[in-house]
Design goal:
The complex is a heterodimer of chains A (about 475) and B (about 300).
Chain A (H helix, E strand, L loop, with lengths): L23 E3 L1 E2 L12 H19 L4 E2 L2 E2 L1 E4 L4 E4 L2 E3 L4 H22 L2 H6 L1 H17 L2 H9 L4 H27 L4 H9 L5 H21 L1 H7 L1 H8 L7 E4 L1 H4 L23 H4 L20 H13 L6 E4 L1 H4 L9 H23 L3 E7 L6 E2 L5 E11 L5 E8 L5 E3 L3 E4 L4 E10 L9 E9 L6 E8 L5
Antiparallel strand pairs in A: 3-4, 5-6, 6-7, 8-9, 10-12, 11-12, 12-16, 13-15, 13-17, 14-16, 17-18
Helix pairs in contact in A: 1-4, 2-15, 4-6, 4-8, 6-7, 6-8
Chain B lengths: L2 H24 L2 E3 H5 L2 E6 L2 E4 L3 E2 H20 L14 H24 L3 H4 L3 H14 L1 H4 L23 H10 L1 E5 L8 H16 L7 H10 L3 H8 L25 H10 L1 E5 L8 H17 L2
Antiparallel strand pairs in B: 2-3, 5-6
Classes of the chains: A alpha+beta (about 475), B mainly alpha (about 300).
Chain lengths: ~475, ~300
């Protein structure tokens, strides 16, 4: 890739700050605390909507009821995963794999198309940080007030404001932790026992763990998670091309920047950027978007809203910072239909179709056949040749069910053992079955045999499993 | 673990930990000259490493992992033969788990133990538990269905080597059995005698074969020699459950009823072993298992 094809990126030459007396520099950088200024605008309204929706789904999820039970419940001890009346079991793991593939390809697709919108709008880190920052600004004020409070001495006012903030943070974090564990342990009972201080050891541990993790990540770590911990953040940028929508500063229009919109200067000498620095102040990761694309940028578009408000103020058109593509910035055309985007789109559709098909064809029954391995075949005392199998039937439905058992394969085998088995909802049962024939009447060769199980009264619920029927040979 | 290997491990672990600490300490800063450079000078496949500082909290995490290691090594085994303050071992954990499970299962088994074996077969739950015990301990030889295999008795029929009463089944489970059919080749007068006796043994359960004149002669020749066999199998060949000698007059065969197999049995003898389960299963488990096996033979009728 030649230099001209590269997306413009920030110059990262070391600044060489903090030289110590002995002429050395720390290899580790102290964190600069970021206090983003709150900003209003169309993208921030959109973000408010998306984070409320994601937070709402998360918090309400475990409280939904379905057919008398919790609608979404992942019962780990029983290894049953209930999702709106459908019970999944570890044997359905392939469906989870499909779901994760759908999620991954959806992420790839949207990233190639519109950059890191996942990061800016729906990522839990963004969502919780936004709620935590909102609490912070309500108690400690906006950016300037917070910067001042950081430096202020520990007056009663600072103690109550700071303390109140942490109490509210912990409360929201506890709600988060409780909700999370509520997906694994029935939440109404869990909440009741939380207030009775009667939680089980593991429940208390995981609620505490997720409470502290939420508090730490959304209250303290914030952008450090995106910059240093998140693997998505790094590899998403790799998917950008010159037709990807990214938050960009229009350098041709903005430069040369000059501070203040002074009327006495010749406007034509200068660009539209008045170097007010608002775009930097609102940035939750503390970068200057005017330096080009940076891996820290989570595409939250706060700088777009900030700049638009300034442009409105000084009577210039909006969009000095905007969602645009590298091609469009250079005066070219954005090429929407490019092989990469189409490829991801097709892959996404194929996997969605596969997942849909797998769900559609899924029957709530499973049959395993284990052939006795201690001998190839058995000669019974009456001379007949027998094979023994253990049939394990798993009832993946919500109702007790009787299953009729049968086999398909060599004709005329005598079935010795139960011909039906009753299995409770979500349970499994094993039965031993012996198939035999009299070699005087039949001359059978070793071959394949299929065992079948069919729900009584519901012929659609059936399945087959392959095994071998072994004989002395012809 | 011998003292040598214990110290060997301790020294290596300590040197490694010290090395990690030294690495962190000695690499916490660089000269200002060095810091000015744009890259570190490391190049891998044409990719240069930028000269960028790491966040300081990463350094804390590194020190934290070292602190965790020290605490862990104090609490748990890791330093050679040192057991750790908590005295944890996987064996003790297993014992604790087994104890926990036994405590949970104990009242259930105690309930089952109150019922005599014959009555216990009427409890579906007991039969389920027995089925699982059977699958884990017995099915390897006797088959999932209990119908046995060559050399391993069929438990669903009425033929019993040592008796099918609940008490006999329990004794078999507790102590095991050692079956022994001695080689009779020379006692029977070699190959010819063995063949004659094999035909006679077949005729005990299947008298019709005497209709064949040649076989009838063989039976005549073998009859007087059967006295040797009668010591165990009885004068009429109906066996003796006290010694585990099979009934030769029924159509249940442990190794097979064809002439060749019976000849083999007579010529070389047989030896069978049922292992004892008294030391592997609890008394209550044996009780439930005996009921399951007893039930197998009853349902076979």
């Amino acid at each position: 890739m030649s230099d001209t094809e590269r997306i413009r990126v920030k110059d990262e030459t070391p600044t060489n700050k903090g030289v110590k007396a002995d002429g050395s520099v720390s290899l580790y950088e102290a964190r600069e605390h970021i206090h983003p200024k709150s900003i209003h605008g169309r993208f921030q309204r959109l973000r408010d909507l998306t984070v409320w929706i994601t937070m709402g789904i998360y918090l309400v999820g475990p409280w939904l009821r379905w057919e008398g039970g919790q609608a979404v419940l992942f019962d780990l001890p029983e290894r049953q995963f209930h999702i709106f009346g459908v019970t999944f079991m570890p044997q359905d793991f392939i469906l989870l794999a499909f779901t994760l593939m759908v999620a991954a390809f959806a992420l790839f697709f949207v990233t190639v198309f519109a950059g890191r919108v996942w990061c800016g709008y729906v990522c839990p880190q963004t969502t919780w940080t936004r709620f935590f920052t909102w609490i912070e600004s309500k108690l400690e004020g906006d950016r300037n007030a917070r910067l001042k409070l950081d430096k202020a001495p520990w007056t009663p006012r600072k103690i109550t404001r700071r303390g109140g903030k942490h109490v509210l943070w912990l409360a929201l974090a506890l709600l988060t932790g409780l909700t999370f564990v509520g997906y694994f342990s029935p939440i109404s009972d869990l909440t009741f026992r939380l207030f009775q201080f009667e939680l089980g050891g593991w429940e208390a541990f995981w609620i505490g763990f997720f409470t502290l993790a939420t508090y730490g990540n959304a209250g303290w770590m914030r952008e450090q998670v995106c910059i240093y911990m998140c693997p998505y953040a790094r590899f998403q940028s790799v998917m950008f091309d010159r037709d990807t929508l990214i938050v960009s500063y229009d350098e041709d229009r903005g430069e040369p920047r000059h501070r203040g919109a002074k009327r006495d200067r010749d406007e034509s000498e200068f660009g539209d950027c008045i170097d007010c620095g608002l775009c930097v102040q609102v940035c939750p990761t503390g970068i200057d978007i005017r330096e080009g694309l940076q891996y820290e940028c989570i595409h939250c578009a706060a700088c777009i809203d900030a700049c638009d408000s300034v442009m409105d103020h000084i009577g210039k058109p909006r969009g000095l910072i905007r969602y645009t593509t590298e091609n469009a910035l250079e005066g070219g055309q954005t090429n929407l239909l490019r092989p990469r985007l189409i490829g991801y789109g097709v892959a996404l559709l194929v996997i969605i179709a596969a997942l849909g098909g797998a769900l559609w064809l899924r029957v709530p029954i499973e049959l395993d056949v284990m052939r006795d391995r201690n001998q190839l075949y058995r000669t019974a005392s009456d001379g007949s040749i027998e094979n023994t199998y253990t049939l394990r039937v798993v009832n993946k439905s919500q109702n007790a069910q009787v299953y009729d058992l049968s086999y398909r394969g060599p004709e005329g085998l005598e079935w010795n053992g139960p011909q039906h088995v009753a299995v409770g909802p979500g349970e499994q049962a094993s039965v031993a079955v012996t198939l035999g024939y009299d070699p005087f009447y039949d001359d059978l060769d070793t071959g394949t045999i299929w065992f079948g199980a069919r729900a009584r009264g519901n012929p659609k619920v059936k399945t087959e499993h392959e095994s071998r029927f072994i004989t002395p040979g012809r | 673990m011998s003292d040598f290997w214990s110290w060997f491990i301790i020294i290596i672990v300590v040197i490694n930990l010290g090395g990690c600490a030294w690495l962190l300490w000695s690499n916490r800063k660089m000269s200002a000259e060095e810091a000015k450079k744009e890259t570190t000078g490391h190049v891998f496949d044409g990719i240069e490493e930028r000269n960028q500082p790491l966040p300081r909290w990463w350094l804390w995490l590194f020190w934290l992992t070292l602190a965790f290691t020290l605490i862990y090594l104090a609490l748990y085994p890791g330093l050679g033969a040192y057991d750790g303050i908590l005295g944890w071992s996987s064996e003790k954990q297993l014992e604790k788990r087994v104890e926990m499970m036994e405590k949970r299962a104990q009242p259930i088994f105690a309930e089952f133990a109150k019922e005599p074996v014959k009555e216990l077969t009427q409890y579906p739950e007991a039969m389920e538990v027995g089925g699982r015990l059977f699958a884990n301990n017995c099915a390897t030889c006797h088959g999932s269905d209990g119908r046995g295999a060559r050399g391993y008795p069929n438990l669903t029929d009425n033929a019993w080597l040592y008796g099918g009463s609940p008490q006999a089944i329990k004794t078999t489970l507790n102590n095991g059995r050692q079956g022994n059919m001695p080689a009779m080749g020379s006692a029977l007068g070699g190959k010819e005698g063995v063949r004659d006796m094999a035909v006679y043994v077949q005729s005990l359960s299947n008298p019709q074969i005497a209709e064949d004149p040649a076989k009838a002669k063989a039976i005549e020749r073998a009859k007087p020699k059967f006295a040797t066999c009668a010591a165990c199998h009885g004068q009429d060949g109906t066996g003796n459950q006290a010694m585990g000698a099979p009934d030769l007059t029924d159509d249940s065969w442990l190794y097979g009823s064809d002439l060749k197999t019976i000849q083999d049995t007579l010529m070389n003898g047989r030896s069978g072993k049922m292992p004892s389960f008294g030391n592997r299963l609890s008394e209550e488990q044996i009780h439930v298992l005996a009921a399951y096996v007893y039930n197998l033979s009853q349902s076979g009728n």
